[in-house]
Amino acid sequence: MLNKLFGLNPKETNVKTEVIAGLTTFLTMAYILAVNPNILSATGMDRGALFSTTVFISAAATILMGLYAKLPFALAPGMGLNAFFAYTICLIMGYSWQFALTAVFIEGLIFILLTVTNIREKIVDVIPEALKKSISVGIGIYIAFIGLSSAEIVVNNDATLVSIGDLTRGPALLCIIGIVVSSVLLIKKVPGALLIGIIVTTLIGIPFGVTQFNGVISVPPSVEPILCKFDWAKIFTPEMFVIVFTLLFVDLFDTIGTLIGVATRAGMIKNGKIPRLKQAFMVDALATTSGAIMGTSTVTTYVESAAGVEQGGRSGLTAFVCGLCFLVSLFFAPLFLSIPSAATAPVLVLVGVMMMSSVVEINFREYSEAIPAFICFVMMPLCYSISDGIVLGMLSYVIINLCAGKYNKLSIGMYILSAFFLLKFLV
Fold this sequence. Notes:
Number of helices: 19
């Protein structure tokens, strides 16, 4: 029954492992329950309604991923995309949040069309193997950087862009303790090491003054203020085209990068292909469309899914458990939101270490492969964008091999994809 429902193979995993993996994934991405309402409420949207919508769409999309695609990936409103929604479309460009939701809805419909026609799968097939390996490496560095910055170990510096923070107190010190605790648990091969590490670090954070408990149960607010609030007056304007194209581009390659990277680390890629990839793309497309209807920005597959994969999650049961945790959090938000980012940051850092393993599979003696791969994985954290890393990696791959006369390594699909990437910079 579990195999039929979730694709659970008893030779690869078991129920206990999947449950722990689902809990771990949820705890590493639970921050979105607080962050997404904070960002989108800057547009004038109701913050309470945004919280409930974030919970509902994350739960529904993640459960659907488990049941339909049978993959251990979680979904929620995407970071970066929600900032583009709030700060660029609404605050800088001056459009209403209703207009922005309409753009997200149109983007979702286009994604459904691209998925039905298998175009998204064909894009994945076009990406060279060296770049696929480097995507996993890049995501590892990227999420480690997210963890270090959220714990204030890496901080902003106007002179050097970034620098080291104060390691002697507060979130930074707690994160360092968490890294040590979780590392020891991993080395000792303790089951559920990452999840235990989060819990222990959260408790240690109480005397540090970092963990703040604000209650246990709360009544979920209504989503009515932002439900089905669209503005169709300007859908045929050049501005709408640019906005939809940008949303479409970033979400497309963020999702592709996340799926390839996490699936590579999980050992799921067989003969260069991810199983049930089309179903995963369809869930992503339906989630974005439904999210717009419910009143939130683009929903996408979360890179934090790697945390659950590292705990052994290999089936849809991991996603299903994570989705149920989202539903439970609707009533226990104060408890879940008491977990500080400094307690989940160590997990992101250690998952980054684990995802670096794919770097040994890149042939660094062949510069036509090594240089584009390096550009791909190093630009992800430096640009703070998975999609930008993929874009620059692919463009460099095509240009370098074309100029070096290695035409046999380039397919028509690569040329088409590179032309599409160039269009992204011109629009």
